[in-house]
Amino acid sequence: MDITNTNPGSNRRLRGGIVGGGRGAFIGAVHRIAVELDGQAQVVAGAMSSTAETARTSAEDWFLSRWYDDFETMAQQEAAREDGIDFVMIVTPNHLHAKAAKAFLRAGIHVMCEKPLAFTVEEAEELAAVARESRVLFGLTHTYTGYPAVREARQMVLDDELGEIRKVLVEYQQDWLMDAVEEDPEAKQAQWRVDPECAGISCCVGDIGSHAANLVEFVTGRNIASICADLTAFVPGRLLDDDANMLLRLQGGGKGTLTCSQVACGEENNLSLRVYGSKGGLEWHQQEPNTLIFKPAGQPWQYLRTSVSLKSVAAAEVTRTPGGHPEGYLEAFANLYRLFLADVRRFIDGTPPVGGYPSIDEGVHGMRFIARAVESSNANSSWVEV
């Protein structure tokens, strides 16, 4: 039987689009690899830059069938095509996330968006209202929730293997902004992240602190209720924070700390989480992602390994290779897309979505976390509610 690309049902490869991610970008290529890894979808269209020449050459680099130099036109024209895209990936700088997402939501096209969700809390809440009204799918790429060991950790908390959650320690340390690299005309990734017009009110907290906060909430199942934050811009002349330290209070009574930095000399991408309960503790490090350390009370530590000793269905569903074959960042990213694309197919078939990937609700909460961290720091590190 010949299944053509214009078949309206789900028995075909899904068609994806991308906004942003053109030449000189990092995350666009990551999204493309992740979404195409399982062979369930292919990126066929893009508005990869607001500059026409860059949009064209970037699309040519990716051998895309169609290219646009603005996302509004892309949303309208793709929605009108019989072979238009089923979903779009938003990978622009922060100030365009919500604007681009709204255009596609209103066109009835499913959206997977980079974090943070929007430029401001108010914009995030408005976007959430548009998403609810459109009734199409919306996902957010908090990548680290896609690791099998992280899903195992969450399930262990749900199964009460840790008992009452008492303390969490999370850190995300990098060093790539320890100098004024944004002064280099070629350093586009640094330039927009430290520019309030593009990044918003925060650099470090918005860029990586939001990941750390989301990881805490995903694993423990408890939102951060209030914070006491101290944000710093260590590099002279930098307008946004490049380092942050916070005290946390979780819903349900647990407490902890969150520290994130992009000026921590010698660090690469050191995201680490420790969770301590009344029965046991957990420890996970993103740079050694296949190992989850379980510390049951009064017993030896257990080193649980992906595809070998992780025992939950939640972990197994996102495990791809036999034990001893490392699964890393790209696979974790692809796991979120695997879950999202499965829901896109359910949507096409008229069946309810299952989820399992971060949603717009986590995005709105993440924006509130960023805003409250800045508010707390500006108020002499006073406690504020998230």
UniProtKB/TrEMBL annotation:
Organism this protein belongs to: Parahaliea maris
Annotated protein name in UniProt: Gfo/Idh/MocA family oxidoreductase
Domain of life of the organism encoding this protein: Bacteria
Domain GFO/IDH/MocA-like oxidoreductase residues, every copy: 150-283
InterPro entries per the UniProt record, alphabetical: Gfo/Idh/MocA-like_OxRdtase_N, Gfo/Idh/MocA_oxidoreduct, GFO_IDH_MocA-like_dom, NAD(P)-bd_dom_sf
GO molecular function, one term: nucleotide binding
SUPFAM superfamilies: Glyceraldehyde-3-phosphate dehydrogenase-like, C-terminal domain, NAD(P)-binding Rossmann-fold domains
Bilayer-spanning residue ranges: none
Domain Gfo/Idh/MocA-like oxidoreductase N-terminal: 15-140
